[in-house]
C-alpha cells in the first residue's frame, strides 16, 4: 500500500504541517523544498521511509560522537544526550511503521547532502566544532521542513506521525545553533550564512539518486 494519500496537485492542504514550523526555522533556511522533490518522493515511497530511518540513526550517531569528543562541555553533553535518545526512538518508530507496511529495512548509499556540507568543515578547534554544529542545525531544520512538506500527501497514520516529529524535532536546530554560538566570543553569522548558502545549492541542484535530503531529480 502506498504511504501517500494524495497526488501532488490534489493534496488536502488542511493537513499541512507548515503551521507547526516556527518562523525562526523557516527564516533560517534559504529556500523551501522544491515541488519536483515532492513529486520524486511520491514515486519512491519505500525509499523515503528507508532513508528516513537511516537519517534518524545517523542523527543519533552524530550526537553520540559529539558526546564522546567534547566531554568538557556540560550543556553540549546534556543537549546531545537528549537528542540521541529522541533520534533513536524515532528510528525505532520508523522501523516499526516499515514492518507494519511490509517495507524491508536495508542499507542505502548516503546522499551527497551531508557530505556536501561537511567537506567545508575547518580542522582546528573551536572552528571545527562550530562548523559541525551549524551543519547539524541545517540538517535538523531541513528535515523538519521536509516533514511538513510531506504531510499533506501522506496517509492519516503517517501524517500524524510526521506531525509529532515536526513538534519534537523543531527545537533541535535551535539547540545546535545555541551550542555553536557558545564556542566563541566572535559572531558566527558569517559562517552560518556560508553554510546556509551551501545547503541551498545542494537542495536546488540536480541529483541522480532519490534520498530524503536529495536535490531535484535529473
TrEMBL record:
Residues passing through the membrane, by range: none
Top-level taxon: Bacteria
GO BP term, pick one: tRNA modification
InterPro entries (UniProt xref): Ferritin-like (IPR012347), Ferritin-like_SF (IPR009078), tRNA-Hydrxlase_MiaE (IPR010386)
GO MF: tRNA 2-(methylsulfanyl)-N(6)-isopentenyladenosine(37) hydroxylase activity
Protein name: tRNA-(Ms[2]io[6]A)-hydroxylase
Taxonomic source organism: Vreelandella salicampi
Amino acid at each position: 500500500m502506498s504511504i501517500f494519500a494524495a497526488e501532488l496537485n490534489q493534496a488536502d492542504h488542511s493537513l499541512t504541517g507548515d503551521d507547526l514550523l516556527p518562523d525562526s526555522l523557516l527564516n533560517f533556511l534559504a529556500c523551501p523544498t522544491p515541488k519536483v522533490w515532492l513529486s520524486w518522493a511520491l514515486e519512491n515511497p519505500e525509499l523515503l521511509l528507508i532513508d528516513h530511518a537511516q537519517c534518524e540513526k545517523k542523527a543519533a550517531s552524530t550526537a553520540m560522537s559529539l558526546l564522546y569528543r567534547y566531554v568538557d562541555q556540560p550543556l553540549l553533553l546534556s543537549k546531545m544526550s537528549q537528542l540521541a535518545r529522541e533520534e533513536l526512538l524515532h528510528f525505532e518508530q520508523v522501523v516499526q511503521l516499515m514492518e507494519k507496511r511490509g517495507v524491508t529495512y536495508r542499507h542505502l548509499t548516503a546522499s551527497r547532502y551531508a557530505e556536501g556540507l561537511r567537506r567545508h568543515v575547518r580542522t582546528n578547534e573551536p572552528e571545527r566544532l562550530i562548523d559541525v554544529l551549524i551543519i547539524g542545525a541545517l540538517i535538523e531544520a531541513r528535515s523538519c521542513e521536509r516533514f511538513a512538506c510531506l504531510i499533506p500527501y501522506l496517509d492519516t497514520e503517517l501524517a500524524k506521525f510526521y506531525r509529532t516529529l515536526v513538534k519534537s524535532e523543531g527545537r533541535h536546530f535551535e539547540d545546535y545553533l545555541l551550542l555553536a554560538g557558545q564556542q566563541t566570543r566572535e559572531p558566527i553569522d558569517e559562517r552560518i550564512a556560508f553554510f546556509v548558502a551551501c545547503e541551498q545549492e545542494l537542495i536546488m541542484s540536480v541529483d541522480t539518486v532519490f534520498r530524503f535530503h536529495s536535490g531535484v531529480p535529473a
